[in-house]
């Protein structure tokens, strides 16, 4: 595989990351990035790209949904990304992806990363923003608000991409992990920002497609934050067939005892699938979940291995 290097100080083949991506051949490339803050919007639409941060590497931009485009219309959620992945077999290691546009009240939704591809693996990465930090594509079949899907995948075919996040850190507040992918989060931390509100946010808002076997799985993850006690929900359904399973997760005191919210859609309670197994921490001590949230047995929880959830028909093994 071709090796490409990027460094801000001019000591590598390229000074910016997008130029390195653009130079990658069709058969793929390994891009090594030297320490630095790379203030740019990056798009990856070539398959088989492996991106490795060497030292402290941050990719940051500041677009938000409320920002006006040249024609005077708002940018919208799905154009606000700092980093976009739209091609299969992408890997990133030791990189921070940040959107520093600000909190949702001022900036609107502000994606640190928009990931819409199959066989994607992030290891030891950080995703930082406020509202809508990480979008795990694809988009749902149809928008609720006309024009709400304006962005790079508005008219693209919807694929059930598989995504693996290993030992990663996420910071946000409202629906900061959302989308339709089959996504497995292993050993990750989810930090909820304090908005000073009675309800400070919702960690996840899946939009799992009807008939899709798996949605989100969180295994051995930590849910932390600087919010007031019982001011954050773990889950609410962006679409009515949303799926999220929490295995052996540590929940901070900021997690509400109900944990799961129906987003004012009582009809979703019979179609979503939400489940927990052996949650611990202050946020789990007095848990009082709705009756539509499942408590898994050890045998049921054992079905949610990384290999089973992400393997698919090609036996993909992101750790292999």
Automatic annotation (TrEMBL):
Keyword annotations of the record: Aspartyl esterase, Hydrolase
Among the entry's GO cellular component annotations, what is one?
Answer: cell outer membrane
Which top-rank group of organisms is this from? Answer: Bacteria
Q: Provide the Pectinesterase catalytic domain boundaries.
A: 4-136, 161-312
Question: Listed GO molecular functions?
Answer: pectinesterase activity
Entry-linked Pfam families = Pectinesterase (PF01095)
Q: Does the keyword Lyase apply?
A: no
Name of protein: Pectin methylesterase
Which source organism?
Candidatus Gallacutalibacter pullicola
* Source species taxonomy: Bacteria, Bacillati, Bacillota, Clostridia, Eubacteriales
């Amino acid at each position: 595989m071709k090796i490409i290097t990027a460094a801000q100080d001019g000591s590598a083949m390229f000074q910016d990351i997008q130029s390195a991506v653009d130079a990658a051949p069709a058969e793929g490339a390994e891009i090594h990035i030297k320490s630095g803050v790379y203030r740019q919007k990056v798009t990856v639409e070539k398959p088989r790209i492996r991106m490795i941060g060497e030292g402290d590497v941050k990719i940051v931009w500041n677009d938000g949904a409320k920002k006006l485009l040249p024609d005077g219309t708002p940018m919208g959620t799905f154009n606000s990304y700092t980093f976009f992945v739209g091609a299969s077999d992408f890997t990133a290691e030791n990189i921070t992806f940040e959107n520093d546009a600000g909190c949702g009240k001022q900036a609107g939704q502000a994606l640190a990363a928009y990931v819409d591809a199959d066989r994607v693996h992030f290891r030891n990465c950080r995703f930082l923003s406020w509202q809508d930090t990480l979008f795990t594509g694809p988009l749902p079949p149809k928008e609720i608000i006309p024009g709400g899907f304006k962005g790079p995948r508005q008219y693209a075919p919807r694929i059930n991409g598989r995504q693996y996040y290993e030992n990663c850190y996420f910071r946000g507040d409202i629906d900061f992990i959302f989308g339709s992918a089959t996504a497995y989060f292993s050993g990750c931390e989810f930090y909820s920002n304090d908005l000073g509100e009675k309800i400070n946010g919702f960690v996840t808002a899946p939009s799992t497609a009807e008939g899709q076997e798996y949605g989100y799985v969180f295994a051995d993850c930590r849910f932390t934050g600087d919010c007031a006690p019982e001011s954050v929900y773990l889950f609410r359904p962006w679409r009515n067939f949303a799926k999220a399973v929490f295995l052996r997760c540590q929940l901070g005191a900021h997690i509400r005892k109900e944990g799961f919210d129906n987003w004012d859609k009582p009809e979703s309670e019979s179609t979503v699938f939400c489940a927990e197994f052996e949650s611990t921490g202050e946020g789990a001590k007095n848990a009082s979940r709705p009756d539509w949230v499942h408590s898994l047995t050890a045998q049921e929880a054992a079905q949610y291995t990384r290999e089973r959830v992400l393997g698919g028909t090609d036996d993909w093994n992101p750790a292999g």
